Amino acid sequence: MEEAIPVDHQIPQHVAIIMDGNGRWAKNKTMPRYVGHKAGVDSVEKVVESCIQRGVRVLTLFAFSSENWQRPEKEVSFLMGLFVSALKKQIKILHKQNIRLRVIGDISALPNKLQLQIQQGEQLTAENKALDLVIAANYGGRWDIVEAAKKIATKIASGALCVDQIDEAALSHALSFADLPDPDLFIRTGGEYRVSNFLLWQLAYSELYFTDLLWPDFDQAEFDKALNWFALRQRRYGKTGEQVEGKV
Fold this sequence. Notes:
- The chain is α/β, with parallel strands linked by helices.
- The protein has a single domain, classed as Undecaprenyl pyrophosphate synthetase, CATH 3.40.1180.10.
- Helices cover 43% and strands 15% of the residues.
- It has helices at residues 22-28, 33-54, 73-96, 112-125, 141-158, 168-173, 220-231, 241-244; strands at 14-18, 58-65, 99-104, 131-139, 185-188, 207-210.
- A 6-stranded parallel beta sheet has the order 3-4-2-1-5-6, with helices on both faces.
- The longest helix is centred in the middle third of the chain and has 24 residues, at 73-96.
């Protein structure tokens, strides 16, 4: 069993996760893919609980990418329904836990029932402080950057901004969840080693943690392994190790 994380270890403020492997998990058990997606919801609950216990302030989960519309229509329909039912079931629980729900992505393309559920959930939990739970739905990193560019272009056209004022900060402020810190720790389950168009700008200095475990098997103990790994990382941001350690 993984040892508890020492209190003096650094805990990431923001953890971002690609929850990969639901379908393969179900296939390995000779069950339909939707069974894996249902099991994946249980893992979400476990990780959310762990974040609160460990002091993580923001958790961003990649629930549905802008590329996932290419999946079989039956599976997409099930995923949309699962999203609605999970929100309906969990939103009051999240609210009691003082968790704020936020959803990023092109929400306008989602089913109307789901859009309404998202709106109600965000409104109910808007003042909560224990954890920001960010769900990326119909989201893509390139889409996010393009939308930010459009916002900046609109400001330039209106005279509210000039070209010389465009810098990294200006672009960052136009992206999704601009008021939250960038992810410190990125986790991907399922044995794939790529970021798959997820938070392309925001992951610039994130520590990247990959595991072969399929998402439904990712529990509190596995989350602690990732946090322990993160605690051993030296985050230099372009500096030398000696500078970070204060030896220069």
